[in-house]
Amino acid sequence: MAKLHRLTARFCASVTKPGRHADGGNLYLRVDASGAASWVFMWARGGRQREAGLGSRDIVSLAQARELAGRMRESLVKGIDPLDARAAERRANAARLTFGECADTFVASKESGWRNEKHRAQWKMTLQRYAATLRPIAVADVSTQDILKALQPIWRTKPETASRLRGRIEAVIDSARVAGQIDDRAPNPARWTGHLEMMLPRPAKLSRGHHAAMPYRDLPTFLTRLRETEGMGALALEFAILTAARSGEVLGARWSEIDVDAKIWTVPAARMKAAREHRVPLPSQALTIIEKLSEARMGEFVFAGQRRGKPLSNMAMEMTLRRMKVEGVTVHGFRSAFRDWAGEETHFPRELAEAALAHVIGDKAEQAYRRGDALEKRRALMEEWAAFCEGMERRDDRR
Fold first, then answer.
1. Which of 90, 25, 117, 67 minimizes the C-alpha distance to 310?
2. Residue 3 covered by a domain
3. Does 338 lie in the same domain as 276?
4. Residues 246, 251, 253: CA angle, nearest 5 degrees
5. Single residue among 64, 89, 114 that ends a domain in this structure
6. Per-residue pLDDT at 370
7. Surface-to-core class of residue 306, CB atoms within 10 Å of its CB (0-12 exposed, 13-18 middle, 19+ buried)
8. How many domains does the chain have?
């Protein structure tokens, strides 16, 4: 056997030369052309070279890699394939891992790549509330009947939520399989094609849920009541209504995005559903909210939460509606009210109303030629919307 421990921690931390760097005892540090490095254990069996990845250099230290390699050498001495030994160990560990634990681990590994807090909250909520019956079950033991028990209560009443839940359960189980916690030969019990589609009606055949919206004619009266309601949630809700923005965009708004002099709120692409920067012209009523909050500014968020450095809770606006005893209406539904008003009560072009909602319209060629965002035209639209919400009569010269 080649000399052991040939590498040093300093060398491993700094090496960028592509190739394999041997530590001895079948352990190598592999560096690719980009400079990324990972540990591999290599051996021969039946005349064929095999290898097992031991993790990234940035996560697994040299000492940890040597310890893992030592276990694999022990398996070879016993005549056991190291990959088989590792798979058996993972399956044994999986017997102790529940679906809930795997779900939480999966969300934690993915949430940094999700654009907004609301999306993260939705993943967590669905896998906790609607998959509650699955959480205590060992992930390797989750069956088709267990999946159906979670899905059937909401499959017809909340078809969109149920469809998303099924996909999220499938993703969690797939991640557990990739991690070696489930036999990779076992089919995923949450898969749709050729499996659950045989037992559940297709989501497309179910009535698609829509966000319940307040009739736009009721907005002036509602806004008067809303302004009598105290709390940051009420201010955030009024701002969302006046700007026709999504709740996640409002709750994530930062002071650095607000240009009071230009009367513009610029939402970065990373926080937009369409992944494109969106400039929002701020009507005077929305600027009044900004000025009020600026006097007691706390941290980077415009609508600051109770926890320092955190935005307002994603449920704050919904809770405001509940305290006002406004039933059958959602926060997102106010965007629908805006769109109905623009179509029924104004002569602004349809494309302008869609742009105000940050909807992507037209095919890719049309989008490529439409370089501008019609900011000033949208400003006239949003000023008229704010005036309507105030209960003011329409002015034809704003059209």
1. 117
2. no
3. yes
4. 95
5. 89
6. 46
7. exposed
8. 3
Q: Give helix then strand counts, H and E, for the chain.
A: 16, 7
pTM exceeds 0.85 for this model: no
Chain segment 3-38, per-residue pLDDT in tens: 789 999 999 999 999 999 999 999 999 999 888 999
pLDDT of residue 366: 39
How many angstroms separate the CA atoms of 202 and 389, rounded? 40
Question: Alpha-carbon distance 336 to 219, whole Å?
Answer: 12
Asked if 77 and 118 sit in the same domain, the reply is no
- 178/4 Cα distance (integer angstroms): 31
In this structure, what DSSP letter does residue 304 have?
B
Which domain range does residue 17 map to?
Answer: 9-89
**Is 349 domain-assigned?**
yes
Q: What is the rounded CA–CA span in Å between residue 267 and residue 280?
A: 8
Q: Tens digit of pLDDT for each residue in 169-187? A: 999 999 888 887 787 777 8
pLDDT score recorded for residue 204: 55
My answer on whether 296 and 378 are in the same domain is: yes
For residue 388, the surrounding DSSP H or E stretch is helix 375-390
Low pLDDT (below 50) residues in the chain: 1, 207-209, 363-370, 394-399
**Residue 153 corresponds to which tokens in the numbers above?**
């209560």
61 plus 109 within the same structural domain: no
Q: How far is CA 366 from CA 277, 350, 361, 363, in A?
A: 18, 15, 8, 5
Q: Are residues 275 and 349 in the same domain?
A: yes
Angstrom distance (rounded) from CA 208 to CA 230: 35
Rounded Cα distance between 380 and 382, Å, is 6
